[in-house]
Amino acid sequence: MSDTVLSVSRLSVSFGVKSAATKTVAKVVDGISFELNAGEVLGLVGESGCGKSITAAALMGLLPSPPALMVAEHILLGDKDLSALDESGLRQVRGSEISMIFQEPLTALDPVFKIGSQLSAVIRRHQGKDRKNAFTTAVEMLGRVGIADAARIMKSYPHQLSGGMRQRVMIAMAMACRPRVLLADEPTTALDVTTQAQVLARLADLGRDSDTAILLITHDLGVVAQACDRALVMYCGRIVEQAPVAELFANPAHPYTAGLLAAVPHVSREGVRPVCAIPGSVPHPAALPAGCHFADRCDRADNQCRAHVPRLQSLEESEIAQPHRHACFHPLPKAAM
Amino acid sequence: MTAPTPPLLSIRDLLVQYPAAASGKRTLAAVNEVSFDIQPGSIFGLVGESGSGKTSLAHAIVQLVRPAAGKILFHGDNLVTMKEKELRSARRNIQLVFQDPLVSLSPRRSILQSLLEPLNHFRIGASGQRRSRAMNALETVGLDQGVQHRYPHELSGGQRQRAALARALITEPELIIADEAVSSLDVSVQARILELILHLREKTGVAFLFISHDLAVIQQLADVVAVMYLGKMLEIAPAGTLFRDAAHPYTRALLDAVPAPDPGHDKPLVLSGEPPSPLTPPSGCVFHTRCPAVMKQCEKIQPAEKHIIEPESSPSAHLVRCHLWNS
Asked: Does any domain span residue A140?
């Protein structure tokens, strides 16, 4: 369970921001480190602009440089350091050992090729199968993501499918080579809730069957609660809290996590549970406050928070195997919520 | 709640069709014989998945699309049969707010210009006072006066949606139709816009038709909730009743499918299949192809609307279209 498949150490991504007079640097991912363990679904949760999608793109080596500037101590996938690979090295790894799916599958599917040929191409490229075998594998994969009439779907173009179907095709394509890691960037955000429930269930089953660890990027705490084992909370480019999901929801230590949880509306049989907004707004990435980036919106902040950057530290009583870490000088006491 | 007040908006047997083929022979019924009432000052939540007809319904109410049949009674006057001139004044009383505020705010106009436009158009107030009306509207939605000279692209998503609400409010409408108005906002921002909508209703007495795919958001706001599927209204009930005792299997499935932000919560029951194409809706009950409680008659006979008896204190009747309730 605790075999690490992906180990990210001190990953930073910055962009140059040019305005009329000055040129500043926006650090959108700021020295984050985390580990993804075999067979787990790790949630990476945060609001727009917190750097979660950039993190995924950086791991895949998909950020064009310039404008992006990416620095990392290492990004270890097994024994390969992705941060040290060149483009041809990355091509070998992408799709076979690490795959990615996106919110909008139409951006990843080619509109002028049929699903069958796109799906077979991936399998032929990475598994060296011939045309016929690749086709059979492709049909099989579509079956595994819950597509009943795979033969018809193979002959369809992307625009002929519904959003839910397209996302299933994407998942089939990403999982075709049983990668060790799947980066899923808001995979169900564009789907209706009934379809979302189906796709999340399939994703979890597939991950378990192929022993693929999943980094599930989402803004939706409901999805985190239902689909993830552990979660990382990101704010302004930094990980502010990490914990097993049950622990995170029961005892959020970072005031931002607690604020997010209080802002999410619940569907409840017992009537309305009012939501609480977080005061203020997210600072611009080119004009981040010194110290803790959340300090200006936090009612626990003091001078220390405004001057110094809190490092991720473990809560004392948390287990070593699944530590509960937070980056806060004044964490909330246990079960304060 | 007390003596019956006449509804602000009354929709009766509304049918909205689009031509589905170039020949015009096949049609798609986006809204299929829908009826409901909105009381003055109330928030009517309309929920449904993509393609259920929520937006077509909203557009039909303001006559952006002309319905094929049915009535839209605003204060008892039928908007469908009105002449363009009369419609114009009715539109002053019904305003739309969209998911993407960039749709209702022109990119080439400052916020102030966007706010003044409806005032000039409808000749509201003396021209000298319009600017101060605009400032009031900004204050009502919690925006700093400094944004008046800004352009939409210079504002954050939350600020833009506030500006769009200010623009909708400035004609002092009696009904605002908010179509997925908070759907693209982050939760922390969304929570503040939800507070604002409740505050605006309190302060100005404006009613809302609040359309969303998100049941959790609907529960925060709505007095009455209606559920649409493939153009049909399957259930209407007071919010408390709907979230506690949903009668229609689709409503229950929808409630169940929302992922609860609580890891201890049961995993959602997965509803099988996808919504059928609205071009070829199923016979009988439109939901029968996915319904966990499907019976023989569901495939053939459209269920009639059934009143489930409600306590008299309730703000609205509980209506359901399902054969389970017809026996």
From this structure: no
pLDDT of the residue at B1: 47
Q: Which ipTM was obtained for this model? A: 0.80
Residue A308 predicted with pLDDT over 60: yes
Which residues in chain A touch residue B50, judged by CB atoms under 8 angstroms apart? 163, 192
* Domain count along chain A: 1
- Residues of B (273-292) whose Cβ lies below 8 Å from A: 274-275
Where in the sequence is the domain holding A62, given as residue range(s)? 4-103+180-326
List, as one string, the DSSP characters of A100-129: EE-S-GGGTS-TTS-HHHHHHHHHHHHH--
- A299 part of a folded domain: yes
B281 and B320 Cβ atoms separated by less than 8 Å: no
| Token pair listed for A98 | 């690490």
Determine, yes or no, domain membership for B160.
Answer: no
* A194: nearest CB among B194, B195, B253: B253
Q: What is the pLDDT of residues A209-244, one digit of tens each?
A: 888 999 999 999 999 998 999 999 999 999 999 999
Question: Does A190 touch chain B if contact means CB atoms closer than 8 Å?
Answer: no
- In this prediction, residues B270-298 reach a mean pLDDT of 87
Q: Which domain holds residue B309?
A: 246-327
Residue B314: inside a domain, yes or no? yes
Distance of residue A127 Cα from the nearest chain B Cα, in angstroms: 32
Contact assignment for A265 to B219 by CB distance below 8 Å: yes
DSSP-assigned states of every residue in A12-59? EEEEEEE-SS-EEEEEEEEEEEEEEETT-EEEEE--TTSSHHHHHHHH
Q: Tell me: the pLDDT tens digits for A294-306?
A: 999 999 999 999 9
Does B293 contact chain A (CB < 8 Å)?
Answer: no
Of all residues in chain A, what percent carry a pLDDT higher than 90?
45
Q: Look up residue A238 and give its two tokens.
A: 């930094």
- On whether residue A149 sits in a domain, the answer given is no
Contact residues on chain B for A252, CB-CB shorter than 8 A: none
**pTM to 2 decimal places:** 0.86
Residue A278 with chain B: CB contacts under 8 Å: 188, 191
Please give, rounded to a whole number of angstroms, the shortest distance from the CA of A32 to a CA of chain B: 22
In tens, the pLDDT along B74-125 reads 999 999 999 888 888 888 999 999 888 887 788 999 999 999 999 998 888 8
Distance (Å, whole) CA A323 – CA A84: 29
